[in-house]
Structure formats: C-alpha cells, structure tokens
Design a protein that fits this description.
alpha/beta; 8-stranded mixed β-sheet; 10 helices; globular
Length: 399
C-alpha cells in the first residue's frame, strides 16, 4: 500500500495534465492505508486484553496457558500405587539414593507429583498434598495419625486430602473425623477404602481397593486382553494353606464334589497367590484362561478383595460372596453403584453348583460378548474413579 502511494506522487509530478486526478487518487489510497492499519492495531489490542495470543498469518489462535496448581501425592501404602499407576495412569522411576519412587503428570491445570517409599516426605512450597495411608489396623492408625500431626506441625500444606485403606472394624477409622474440614480440621476431602460407614460422597468418598500392587500386579489395557479364544478353564481359585475362613476351606471340597478337577484350576499354597515373579505370571495366565474367578471374602471378612479387580482386568467374571460386615453400609456398594458385571452369591458353598450349571449353558459367542463387557466396564470404571478424583481435588483445592 505504501509503495502504491509513492508511485502516485511520482506519476503526478511527471504528468502535468492529469495531476489533479492523480493527486485525488493518491489521497484516497492514503486514507485507505491508514484505515487498514488502524483496524489491525485495534484487533491486536483487543486480543491482548482478552489474554489470547494470535497470529495475523492465519495461524491457530492459542490461549495463554493458565498457571498450574501443584498437587503432591505422598504414598505410604500400596493403594497409592493403584491410584498412581492404574487410575491416574502415571509413570514413575526409582531413585536409588533415596530408596524412593517418583513420578510427575500434568492433567489440565493440575500438576501432580508422586512419591512413595521409605524416604522422608518432601512437600513442595505452597503445594496441595494428597496423603495416602494405611489405617487397616489400630497399630497402623496410631502411626499414620502421628505422621499426619507431624506434617501439619512442620510442613503444613495449602490443602490436604486423604486416601486411606480402612479397616473392617470400622471404629478404628473414626479418628479421622476430627480432622475433617466440616469439623474445623485441615482435611478437605477423604477417599476411603472399605470402611464406608463415613462415606457421604460430599466430604468422604468410598474408594476402590483395586489390584494387589504390593505384589506388582500390572495395569492391562482392554485391547491387550484376548477375548476371542476359547478359555480352557471354567473357573479358577487360588487359596492359602492353612485356610483362614470357612469358605476358603470348602472350595477345594466343592471342586472335587462337583467333579471340576479338570475344568477348574485350583491351587492351594502356603504363600500368597503370587509371591514371586514366576507365580505372578502363572496367576495372570490362569485368570486369563478362566471365564470365572472364585473370590470369597478376605481373611478379615470383607467381601471386597484384590481378586475381584484382577479378574475384571483380565476379562474373567468374579464370583463374589455378598456378605455383610459390621461397617453399616454395604462393602460392595461402590461396585454395585457402578453396575459391576460380577456374579453375586450369598454362599459359594450353596450356590457354586448353580453358577457352574449356568456357565455350561453358555456358548462361546455369549462368553466372548461377556468378556468384552467385563474388560470395557473395568476400563470405564477406572476412568470414572479418575475423573471423580480430579473433580474433587480441583473443586476443593485452596488457590
């Protein structure tokens, strides 16, 4: 535009006859030039005021990134590994000189860091803390409350959230009540496993037990699971010797009575189901090869066990005893609320025969469809728990 105005002036000087007309044209071009520049200037000023960076060269308009909120997850128990690895799908690395695992993940405007191990808890300045603790026994409860008190005394965070493994005798978890924000305490929200009598889904949220991360059970993606091939076992059961509850004692007898020795994989061990890498591999393979996984109540009487989540992740349907505990609310409430595709029985001893009979009536296509439902449901369940965790942290964090 500037070049065109200059050419007009030169042309006017060289042509005496048409110079009035040429000068008029130059004036019009000059006015248009100024008007165009002013419009661009106003656009840029407007965009700067709205906090948006733009390019005039038709590039994508990108908003300026908001400031991240720092959230430090400090884990003192394996359920922290389930939160980090399986729900948040974060990665971590081992720091040998501190005997600590550390990780980092940014989600939207939340910057999560993760630390687990025996090292001293380190809190970033002006950070918000998620403390993951084990309150499954009275001894653990005293230890964790001391840890909490020391944190509040020496390194008070901006906001504090608790993820706690509750016990089956719910009275042992009442100690956290006085620390809740509704009672003037520092805890903004609590995610509680098992001990659901406190859960109001407003300040205390019932939380899943998850897989046995303390035995390194890995995260499986839904598309990694073979749902199409015939599975050699109708069911599987991994138990311990000596047996520690009545149901675990009766399952081997039931398998023999129902003549399922060749169609149900049964293993009784003096150790845990998979205490070594080799036995972990065997366990995963067997569950992957079984359409049903028998999951009786745990030694402490809770019907929610690691077996349930491990079966879901491998496309095997957990058969779960729907027993009541002293905690008031149903211990399987969270799974029922999300319509988990498990088989609930009042007693494996009395109902296993019917469960097996129903299983034998299903054809391969029906089983394939069910396996797809199971693995997809579990993937969706993990994501729903993750979204709830993000939502609660984001809504209750102190800015």
């Amino acid at each position: 535009m500037i070049v065109s105005v200059k050419r007009c002036v030169l042309a006017a000087r060289s042509c005496q006859i048409f110079w009035p007309l040429i000068l008029l044209t130059c004036a019009v071009l000059f006015l248009l030039h100024n008007l165009f520049n002013n419009e661009i200037s106003l656009q840029i000023t407007s965009q700067k005021r709205s906090g948006v960076k733009i390019s005039i060269d038709n590039e994508i308009i990108t908003p300026i990134a908001p400031e991240f909120l720092q959230v430090d997850i400090q884990s003192q128990t394996p359920i922290g590994e389930y939160l980090w690895n399986h729900l948040l799908e974060g990665t971590k690395e081992f720091i040998p000189d501190r005997a600590t695992y550390k990780g980092n993940k940014v989600v939207d405007d939340l910057n999560f860091t993760f630390q687990s191990g025996d090292a001293e808890i380190l809190i970033s300045p002006n950070s918000n803390v998620v403390l993951v603790i084990d309150g499954s026994s009275q001894l653990n409860q005293k230890k964790e409350e001391l840890l909490l008190k020391n944190m509040l005394l020496f390194h008070p965070p901006k906001s504090l959230f608790l993820v706690i493994l509750g016990d089956n005798a719910c009275s042992n978890n009442k100690w956290i009540v006085r620390y809740l924000s509704s009672n003037g305490g520092p805890i903004s929200a609590t995610f509680m496993v098992r001990s659901s009598f406190l859960a109001d889904e407003n300040e205390v949220y019932q939380w899943p037990l998850g897989v046995a991360t303390h035995r390194d059970f890995p995260l499986f993606w839904a598309d990694e699971i073979d749902i199409l091939s015939p599975r050699p076992f109708i069911c599987n059961y991994f138990g311990t010797n000596p047996v520690r509850n009545a149901t675990q004692d009766v399952i081997p007898q039931l398998v023999k009575e129902l003549k399922l020795e060749n169609s149900c994989y049964l293993k009784m061990s003096s150790k845990t189901a998979f205490s070594t890498i080799e036995s972990l591999g065997e366990y995963i393979q067997v569950v992957s090869d079984s359409d049903l996984s028998l999951c009786p109540a745990a030694e402490n009487g809770s019907p929610e066990t690691h077996c349930i989540y491990e079966a879901f992740s491998l496309g095997s349907v957990p058969v779960v005893e729907d027993v009541t505990t002293s905690c008031g609310r149903d211990s399987l409430f969270l799974l029922k609320k999300h319509k988990a595709p498990f088989i609930l029985v009042k007693s494996l001893e009395n109902e296993l025969r019917d469960v097996i009979a129903n299983e034998n009536r299903m054809n391969l296509q029906e089983k394939i469809a069910r396996r797809a439902t199971v693995v997809n449901w579990y993937a969706d369940f993990r994501h729903r728990m993750t979204r709830q965790f993000y939502r609660v942290i984001h809504s209750k964090v102190n800015l």
